[in-house]
Each structure stands twice: as structure tokens, then as C-alpha cells.
Amino acid sequence: MMKKIILYILLIASALAIFFPILYAFSASLMSTREIFSGALIPASPSVESYGQAFNRVPLLQFLTNSFIVSFVVMIGQLIVCSLAAYAFVFIPFKGRGIIFALFISTMLIPWEATVIPNYFTILNLGWVNTYQGLTVPFFALAFGIFLLRQHFLTIPKEIFESAQMDGCSRFRFYWNFVLPLSKSTLSALGIYGFLTTWNMYLWPLLVTSNNDVRTVQIGLKMMIAQESSTSWNMVMAAVVMILLPTLLLLFFGLKHIRKGLMAGAIKG
């Protein structure tokens, strides 16, 4: 009994330590600037005025909308591209399949920063600077996503595929009617992962956009910090809370799917 109590105390302390920056950001967003600089942790008289100021100072709503569009499109693109590629690696026999898959996986060893310049020149030559295509298309093919889905597809019994073929089921119909419904948890995990990583992306949107009409919310937050860092930290914290809210909600409701999806193909080599 005592061990369980100590364990729960440690878990609660760890949770508070991890969530302290988020809790303080929310608390600071309700304070006045004087309270923040005095080192207060809890606002004496909470006010939501800083939230309105955050929306008025920079086009935060436009940035949030852009981030949602970009993250959603990347999520859908990754699900389509990665599921089709993983399906080919598992259910379509072709020469050199193992070598090609190994090459795909080896790209996970290349730091993303090493591909930034080639990708930028590609986007520049295509005329996709300051467009949603430039922000989304380079991230549709994800080696981790292909690997994750391939591992899960390997757990689907081959007998189902063979029986479907004997009944005249085409490969695409088997992919659509059997493989995808049997992979909902893994697809959900990949979708949430893709949405969250795209939402938090900073360097790539900074490189390929110079127009507020397509810039994402991380760039907007940086603009706000540059303008208000010495005077209005409560407004900056209000913007941080608004940016964190969608990702926290998605993580809270999708955590079960992420855990289940990542475990689904873990035992298949």
C-alpha cells in the first residue's frame, strides 16, 4: 500500500513538473504585466483582456487558420501516400522490394536539416514560394509512416488477401475495403503524429513564406515575441495558450489511438 502511495505521489509530482510551463503560461496570460515581472504565479485579479489584444496585434486568426489548413492537408497526404507505399511493400511482389524498402528506411538516418536547401530550390523552381503547396507537398512522403503502416499491414493474414483475390477482388478494392478498415488505430496514430509535427513546424514555413496570407502560427508567435517581448508578456502568453490549445486537445483525445497504433505492428518483423 505504501509503495502505491509513493508511486502516485511521484507520478503527480512528475506530471506537475512537466505541465508547469503550460500552467504558468495560462496563469500569466490572465495577469497584468506588473504581476508577471513581480514573479507572481497566480493572478490577483484574472483578466482575459490580453487574449483580445493578441488577436488585434497580429493576424493570429489568419495564422491559426493557415496552420490548420497546412497541418490537415499534410496529415491527409501522409495517410494516402504512406498507406499506398506500405501496401505495395507488403501485398504487391516485385523485384528488389526488400532493397527499395531498406533505402526508404535509410532516409530516416538523414537529418531533415540536410534536405532543407535542396527542397527549397525545388519549391523555388516550381514557383511554390508563398503557397500552400510549398508548405505541404514536401512532407507527404514520410519514411516513418511507411515503416509504421508496413509493420501493421504485415499482421494482416495473407489468407484474407488470397481469398479476396480468388473471389475476384482487385488490389485497390482489397486496399480500400479490407486493409484500411483493419488499420484504423495505426492510421489514427500516424494522422495525429503528422498533424502535431506539422503544426509545430517553424523553420520550413519561415523559409518558404514571406506573406502573412499563408504564414503559419509559429511564425506569428515569433513576430509577436519580437514586437512585445519587453512590454506585454501577458499578451504573448495568451497567444501561446491559443496555439497550444488545439494540439493539447488533439493529444488528449488521441493519446489512446497513438499508443494502440504504435503497438499494433511492434511484434512483426
Q: Would you write up a description of this structure?
A:
This protein has 269 residues and is mainly α. The chain has 2 domains: 1-46, no CATH class; 57-265, MetI-like (MetI-like fold, Orthogonal Bundle), CATH 1.10.3720.10. The chain has 14 helices and no strands. The chain has helices at 2-29, 33-37, 49-57, 60-91, 97-106, 116-126, 132-136, 143-153, 158-166, 171-179, 184-199, 203-208, 217-228, 233-264. The radius of gyration is 23 Å and the shape is globular. It starts with a helix and ends in a 5-residue tail after the last helix.
Number of domains: 2
Estimate what percentage of residues fall within beta strands: under 5%
Order of helices and strands: HHHHHHHHHHHHHH
CATH architectural category of the largest domain: Orthogonal Bundle
- How does the helix and strand content classify structurally? mainly alpha
Radius of gyration: 23 Å
Counted beta strands: 0
Class of the largest domain, according to the CATH hierarchy?
A: Mainly Alpha
Q: What helical percentage do the residues reach?
A: over 70%
Taking the alpha carbons of the first and last residues, their distance comes to 40 Å
